[in-house]
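Renewal narrative, Specific Aim 1. Our central claim is that a sequence can be written position by position from structural information alone. The example that follows is taken directly from our test logs and has not been curated for this report. It begins with the structure tokens describing the chain, in the order in which they were read.
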């Protein structure tokens, strides 16, 4: 049975994985995009924790070894930037993947 686009109800060719060739509807969100969004949310949460104060999030409560807590607090801006960077990279990679298939199906 042929798959159909949920947006325009056109029949989908076998090689249409991410986008509908007829209306360019995004059929599936690549896992990389979802992971990217998770990392960006994580970065935002870390940023919030940083603004709130790394000392306030329980790092020095005794659950984490003091050395590790100090290293984490010292490198907090790096952690925030890292999480955002990974998130932005994954989202961009997923967007490029969709773009390239859009270009491919419109050229066909
Ligand atoms: Zn469609």
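The sequence written for that structure reads:
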């Amino acid at each position: 049975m042929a798959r159909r686009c949920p947006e325009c109800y056109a029949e989908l060719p076998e090689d249409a994985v991410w986008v509908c060739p007829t209306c360019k509807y995004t059929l599936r969100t690549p896992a990389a995009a979802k992971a990217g969004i998770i990392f960006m949310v994580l970065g935002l949460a870390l940023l919030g924790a940083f603004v709130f104060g790394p000392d306030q999030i329980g790092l020095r409560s005794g659950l984490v070894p003091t050395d590790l807590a100090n290293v984490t607090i010292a490198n907090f801006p790096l952690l925030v930037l890292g999480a955002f960077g990974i998130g932005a990279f994954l989202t961009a990679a997923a967007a490029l993947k969709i773009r390239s298939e859009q270009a491919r199906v419109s050229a066909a």
